[in-house]
Amino acid sequence: MSSDFESYEQDFAVLTAEITGRIGKVPKLVGDEKKQMVANVEKQLEEARELLEQMELEVREIPPQSRGMYSSRMRSYKQEMGKLEADFKRSRIAYSDEVRNELLGDDGNSSENQRAHLLDNTERLERSSRRLEAGYQIAVETEQIGQEMLENLSHDREKIQRARERVSLTISN
Questions:
Q1: Counting Cβ atoms within 10 Å, is residue 64 exposed (0-12), middle (13-18) or buried (19+)?
Q2: Residue range 73-82: average pLDDT?
């Protein structure tokens, strides 16, 4: 059992070393290379999380008297994983800032580009608001029609019940 844990430990150590190296490369890359590197790091982080889960399962199967040492190692691995995720997040924030600057223009400070983007976004918001309002009106109308139908059905039910009562009264007479 502990041999499985140690095997997972080795895999985790190799994987975290690769992740650390790749995270360090992300800010230095550009374009598609950077996108590919970010995708690879995300995939490797997911693999590392899965390895941690497997290691936790192995620790649960270890007898209680030996479990303490493995539990403390698991805590340190989880801390290391948290640090890797935080480093990757910082790396991605720098990456997203660069992407934002590319989308806004070369310098990111062009007031005309920003104004045009704001106007486009405002127009999209207004269109979306109008669509939402139209959808809300349709929902209200549908609710009113449904309510009228329920009232009509209620009246029809009362008529049918009165007719039944008359028929049963007629039959009894």
A1: exposed
A2: 89
